[in-house]
C-alpha cells in the first residue's frame, strides 16, 4: 500500500523556514534537484497546506518558460503541473494545476486517498504535517538536513503529543553538504 511521506528540508537547528519565510539558506543544487525530481516523479500525489501550495503555484507553473532555467528546474515544472495535488485549507476557495482543495484532515478520507493512490503521497507544510502527525497518518519521514543554523522561524515539528519511535532506513550525503535522513515509523 502507498505510504504518506513527510518530505521537508530543514536546517540543522530544526527550522523549515527562517524569519519572514526565508528559504535563502537552502542549498539546492543540480544534484539535489535531480534527486527531488526523481523522488517526486514516483509519487502518486502531493499533500500540502495552503502556504506551501501557494508558494509552489506562484513559481512552478511557468518556471520552465525562463530561458535561464536549469534542466532540473524545467523538468520539475512539468512534474509539478501534472501530479495530482491536495491542498488542506479552510480559506482557499479554489486551486488550479491539478489541485483539489480539502477543508480539514479527516483520517478516514486520508486513508481512502492513500489506498487509491498510484504511489506514495508526499506531504509538505508545517501546520498540515503537524495535524497528520497528531493523527498518526505519517508513515515515512524524509528530512533533508541543510548545513545551516537559522535561529528563528517555522519549526519542522510542532510542540505536541506526537511521540513515535522511528527506524533509519536510509541516509545519503549530497556533495553540497545536505544530508537525507529517511525514517519509517516503527511498528509498535
Characterise this structure.
With 188 residues, this protein is α/β, with parallel strands linked by helices. Helices cover 29% and strands 28% of the residues. It has 5 helices and 10 strands. The strands form 2 sheets. Strands 5-4-3-6-1-7-10-9 form an 8-stranded mixed β-sheet. A two-stranded antiparallel ribbon has the order 2-8. Helix 1 packs parallel to helix 3 (71-82). The longest helix has 13 residues, at 30-42. The two termini are 19 Å apart.
Spans where pLDDT lies below 50 across 5 or more residues: none
Write down the secondary-structure element order.
EEHEHHEEHEHEEEE
Q: Could you report the average pLDDT, rounded to the nearest whole number? A: 93
Strand order in the sheet with the most strands: 5-4-3-6-1-7-10-9
Count of β-strands: 10
Indicate the structural class.
alpha/beta
Range of strand content: 25-35%
Q: From the alpha-carbon coordinates, what is the Rg to the nearest angstrom? A: 16 Å
Please outline the major beta sheet: 8 strands, mixed
Determine the oligomeric state from the structure.
Answer: single chain
Number of helices: 5
> Span from first to last CA?
19 Å
Query: What does the overall shape look like?
Result: globular
- Percent of residues in helices comes to 25-40%
